[in-house]
Amino acid sequence: MRPRGFASDNNSGIHPQILKAIEEANTGHSIGYGDDPWTKEAIVLFKKEFGDDTEVLMVLTGTGANILGIQSLIQSFHAVLCAETAHIQTDECGAPEKFTGCKLIPIPTKNGKLTPEQIEKHLHGFGFEHHSQPGLISITQVSELGTLYSVNEIRELAELAHSHGIYLHMDGARISNAAVSLDLPFRTFTKDAGVDILSFGGTKNGMMIGEAVLFFNPALSEHSRYFRKQAAQLYSKMRFVGAQFVPYLRDGIWKTNAKHSNKMAKLLETEIRKIKEVEITQLVEGNGIFALLPKTIIPKLQEEYFFYTWDESRGEVRWMTAFDTTEEDIVNFAKLIRELLNE
Question: 271, 270, 259: which is closest to 323 by C-alpha?
Fold first, then answer.
């Protein structure tokens, strides 16, 4: 068996407590489609984190969460402004555009983060019927380049969006890693910072399956249940999603797992910075590391450890740590890099 790789935190298994929660929910019969006790308890826990006026809808996948969030807020004639590296732009096979009919406008960034200055030049054509109407700004926390938005940066984007009558969506696939790194409650850098809707991820941080879409203004969720059904995201046995979120939120599994994966990323960063021929290209603020390697060693390294090449033209790779990454994994990985470089 190959050692644990660094391709994605999606590649990790299921946290033992989460697996146990699924097993405990697997007794007898229960009402389907989210009317079960586990899902109801999970919703209560989400409201405890984000406020009683938060509407919570659970879905199966991160792509489904993003689609549902975006579709609930805008019409097909609207445009979504996002970073060119955003998951909705690069890794969802056009699903947001297919389901919403809207246009994605990718904005180049150096660090995966949008700024008001980058967005403002796209905020035009309001009321002009020949132009897709700007309807929503979508940001990712942690970004796809492993960087973090500060509370003030998010608040500035929210104020910009709202001043033009549009919305701010956050893709929180790795939101737990962000919360740990910022050392802040979820609510502080989402709802209280002006985010309108949040895709709350769990699969990358030890859950088996399931995400949640949080509407911080319940009025925005008026039609979302129908959109969820049409997008095939209404799981009949939803109790097995809700059952995971209960210990995940109640027992702080989200925090323990994210703290560990972030710590492993920092350890990997420390080890990699000792290697002269490898250059880290982005700030390491979550559980992802981006680095430039001599192209000749990348295939050889991938024979032992699975990971993705981010930019083949530059020899830039992405390494992700997970809740089950060990210090031994890090040490052995760095050792192999040095051996391949003959250091």
Answer: 259
